[in-house]
Fold:
Amino acid sequence: MFHQACSSLVRAARPTRTAAMSSTRAYSVKLPDLPYDYSALAPIISPEIMELHHKKHHSAYVTNFNIAEEKYKEAEAKGDLATMIALQSAIKFNGGGHVNHSMFWEMMCAPKDYEPPSGELANDIDATFGSLEAMQKRFNAGAAGVQGSGWGWMGYNKVTGRIELTSTANQDPCSTTGLVPLLGVDVWEHAYYLQYKNVRPDYLTAVWNVVNWKDVAARYAAAKK
Structure:
């Protein structure tokens, strides 16, 4: 069932659950702390954007997922299939929002700490796309083309053993495309509008200056196991 798949994704984003909790109890997730200050990504991403994005938007996904999950478990205990089905979209949207943002914060670093990809990851990017710059150009084109709100992704295809680029709508996780997420960029307007207005391509060009390639490399190594 979709609910089980979504719950697995959310558990991977560090939910909280007591050891004594039974299978009929709802999962509960918490808003993670950022691995840096709200001002750390400036001037690429302003402190105001980071604080609003984290405290308001991500926090809302956490709150609404927990509410939907609790309602789902109540409906499950009653055998209320209609309500269980009706809650699927809220669980997917808010659970996806929590999963995506929990990774997003870790996939970025302060501009002063930026280091380009190296080693096996860099070699794979070059072999697949020709160069880091060529990959970034293709990534930006795909992410800029997302209609409305969504995410741009670089992921690992375990079947082909290759790095691929994709995008998802709304808060759909990268895993819904069949790829293991390596790098995600939020292209919802709340991620950039206060600073870049409606010029999404400018935001996408700038955001590469705060990509945490060490985190991406760790995800890449784990995905290849």
In short: Confidence is low (pLDDT under 50) at residues 14-22. The beta strands are 150-157, 162-169, 180-186. The two ends are 27 Å apart (CA to CA). Residues 47-78 form the longest helix (32 residues).
